[in-house]
Amino acid sequence: MKAITVGLIPSPDMPNKLIDKVINQLEETFKSNIDSNVDWHFEQEVAPMIGTSEHMDETLDLIKDKKNQNNWDYVICVTDLPSISGKKAVVCDINTDTHSAFLSLPALGVINLKKKLKSFLAFVLNYMYRKEDDVDLLKNKGFKFAKISKVTPNEDNSTQTVRIIIESAAIGWIHIIAGMTYANEPWSAIGDFKKIISVSFATGTYVSIFSTPWDLSISYDYWRFILLTLLSLIGMTAWLIYSYKLWEHPSTKTQRIYRNAYNLTTFMTVGSITIFHYLLLFVLLGISALLFVPPELFTSWTSLNSIHPTFIDYVNLIWFITSLGFLAGALGSTVENAEKIRRVTYSYRQYYRYEYISQSQIEDDKENEEQYEGEKQSHRKEEK
Fold this sequence. Notes:
This protein is α/β, with parallel strands linked by helices. It has helices at 14-22, 26-33, 56-70, 113-130, 169-183, 194-207, 211-219, 222-243, 256-292, 295-301, 311-330, 338-345, 348-366; strands spanning 2-10, 38-44, 74-79, 84-85, 88-95, 100-104, 148-153, 161-166, 379-381. Strands 1, 2, 3, 4, 5, 6, 7, 8 and 9 form a nine-stranded mixed beta sheet that branches.
């Protein structure tokens, strides 16, 4: 039986975690979908890929070098780098000559991600092994809405390189932003915003001892509650991004399309963290209000008069003081340090990008020279 060794090179963090989950299942998947007469072996090597999205060629060269160093038959790199070609999301680049492929994890989205990754690894290997694509490998594997197609990169002179893209630009961008946000693992930031929660809780508790917020919570229409909530959430998100300089500004070494992708991902990541902490504050202030705001006092201090307060009245009060406390806590509040907030809100790739751009700007100040922002990716339809 012929033996084939496949090298898998995931980037640190999310790509590596997903490869860890599927690597033991790949042999069975490859035997059933590609060739049952092959003894498939898999080797995994985590590598912090060099370069940024604008310089994919550097990463592709590293993949080839890794393959030669380890004597692998095939190599697939799985990274959290977004890849965009002609404003469309690139799922992967495949070179049948060098038996190497570059898979962009964000393009797979977040729904059924493990299943999609396993199916696409089989699809990519099948293409390199047989030099033909088998779309059946992707059917009913989470690719119902994202129609993919095969194109030829314009920037690559090799006739052996093909690019797999998502045909719908809108669906592709949704996948990229959702996938990059997921790769940032915002849920891991639960314990890193203690100061913000403390300030917001103290403010909300202080506000709740006065009768005016109680009365306003009874009088307000729901659209006002919603508006105040949105104002507090957006205010906190904007403050964190501004305060810790998380927004990527134009640079001579970056392309606008990738800046937009990273900035939108940053907003979504910080926004999701903010929403979680808003809900946490709601629970904390809810417990406080239910314990220390007796119904009799609620009635006598507000326009309820002799009417007994209902559960909805308490929910509205808690909602109101949560939004006020969160909004007040947003302005001027801080977390432990700027380095930590970037580690929390950026994936490994995005953090590397931040450091790369920062260093580039320092070099630009020292040397006034023309910079190269990388070659934009584009493609053309394959001739039938």
